[in-house]
Amino acid sequence: MARTSRKANRRHPLATVLLIAIGLVVTGGGYALLSSTTTATADTSATSQETIEEGQKLFAANCATCHGMSLEGTADGPSLIGVGAAAVNFQVGTGRMPMAMQGPQAMQKPPQFTDEQTAALAAYVASISPGPAIPDPSLLQGDGDATNGGELFRINCAMCHNVHGAGGALTEGKFAPELTGVAATHIYEAMLTGPQNMPVFNDDNLTPEDKRDIITYLKYLENNPSPGGVELGSLGPVAEGLFAWIFGLGAIIGLMVWLTAKSN
Questions:
Q1: Binding residue per annotation — 164?
Q2: What pLDDT does residue 40 have?
Q3: 152, 233, 243, 260 from 247: Cα distances, Å
Q4: Which of 26, 140, 171, 212 is most buried, by CB atoms within 10 Å?
Q5: Greater confidence, 31 or 264?
Q6: 63 is an annotated ligand-binding site residue
Q7: Based on the domain organization, do 98 and 193 belong to the same domain?
Q8: What pLDDT is stored for residue 262 in this prediction?
Q9: How far apart are alpha carbons 78 and 196 in whole angstroms?
Q10: Residue 113 domain-assigned?
């Protein structure tokens, strides 16, 4: 009876080997996972630092003359301390910076830097002093509430940019640019940073979701033609009234001349 009990409690000869193998697999797998995670983090950190260093070189060669080597600003350019990556991405990405010449406002033109160089400049400026960041792509898809965006746009933006985003004149040679064809990233960054004559709409004024809705509204206008036919520049009643005055009154005068000539 005792011999039977000992046989029942005796381990299989391969049990110890199996346990050791399982232990090695678990330990090795855990170590490999930890090593890969650490390596990925180190690579990301190295890439980020490399990007910042590249941005520093570009800034020193192209921007420091006006903005100062430490972003402190000069007589020819404002300080960039605290503007953040979003402002740099907007100004450089739209070609407004570097400026071609001094004027009432920086004019949009083809960008002088690649997307990678622009990102490096933005990363460098943000590394010196934090500020508004480049928006998350999830807010730029144009999948928000266009109705809410239209209401917010009419309340906050239409007095300068026109209800249709066609732009408009301001004072002293300045103007609000047309918003058709503008990248969603740049629209968001303009609201967030308030470039030139534009007021700043930070997240306390317009939440990220509000900005997303405004972008949705503008992209809806851009992608859907006017149901009324010819838009006449989308300038509203002034253009429409001028059209009616010239062509309507011209048609009436032409008809009167024709009738007069016919009666004679």
A1: no
A2: 36
A3: 35, 17, 6, 20
A4: 212
A5: 264
A6: yes
A7: no
A8: 73
A9: 11
A10: yes
Give the Cα separation of 74 and 65 in Å (integer): 8
Q: Is 157 annotated as a binding residue?
A: yes
pLDDT bucket at 19, cuts 50 / 70 / 90: low
pLDDT tens for residues 89-138?
Answer: 999 999 999 988 888 899 999 999 999 999 999 999 999 988 999 999 99
Shared domain check, 145 and 240: yes
Are residue 124 and residue 170 in the same domain, yes or no? no
Is 186 assigned to a binding site?
A: no
**Domain CATH number, residue 55:** 1.10.760.10
Domain span at 211? 135-250
- pLDDT exceeds cutoff 90 at 59: yes
179: exposed, middle or buried (C-beta count within 10 Å: 0-12, 13-18, 19+)? buried
| Same-domain pairing of 102 and 146 | no
State mean pLDDT over 127-156: 95
